[in-house]
Amino acid sequence: QVQLVESGGGLVQAGGSLRLSCAASGIVFRSNAMAWYRQAPGKQRESVAVISSGGITNYDASVKGRFTISRDNVKNTVSLQMNSLKAEDTAIYYCRSFGRDYYWGQGTQVTVSS
Predict the structure, then answer these.
(1) What SS3 class is residue 31?
(2) Cα–Cα distances in Å, from 74 out to 11, 24, 25?
(3) Which of 64, 29, 26 is nearest to 48 (CA)?
(4) Fewer CB atoms < 10 Å away: N or C end of the chain?
(5) Alpha-carbon gap, residue 11 to 75, rounded angstroms
(6) Given a cut of 90, is residue 67 above it in pLDDT?
(7) Rounded CA gap, 107 and 94, in Å?
(8) Residues 11-50: tens digit of each pLDDT
(9) End-to-end Cα separation, the chain, in angstroms
(10) β-bridge mates for residue 98, sequence order
(11) 82, burial (CB in 10 Å: exposed 0-12, middle 13-18, buried 19+)
């Protein structure tokens, strides 16, 4: 059974940090690119950060320099380190696999207070 399970969300003050993790099972993790998306109220879901199976990363301009995506192919996890958080970062954050297996996690709420 495929599972992408996000964790690490919560409430943080502006300027603070959070680290999100996504634990994957039931997919060939090493063969998939992984991504973090987010969806704020009233907005479309958008890609935040992507990491290829080979470790190449790409970021949305709004988070570049503040967020870092990484993967651990031994633990089958993908993480998103979020620093210098802003109120505009408030959203539900979703883990996604693609390239071989296309699945979404259920999301984890990140709320940044001003």
Answers:
(1) helix
(2) 29, 11, 12
(3) 64
(4) N
(5) 26
(6) yes
(7) 4
(8) 999 999 999 999 999 988 999 999 999 999 999 999 999 9
(9) 40
(10) 33
(11) buried
Token readout for 31 is 């063969």
Residues 35 and 51 sit within 8 Å (Cβ to Cβ): yes
For the chain, helix, strand, coil in percent to 5 are 5, 55, 40
Nearest to 88 by CA among 35, 21, 43: 43
Q: Give the closest residue to 85 by CA, choosing from 8, 23, 24.
A: 8
Contact 81, 60 (CB under 8 A): no
Contacts of 17 (CB under 8 A, 6+ apart): 81, 82, 83, 84, 85
Quick check: 100 pLDDT over 90? Answer: no
- The phi, psi pair for 29, rounded to 5°, reads -55, -45
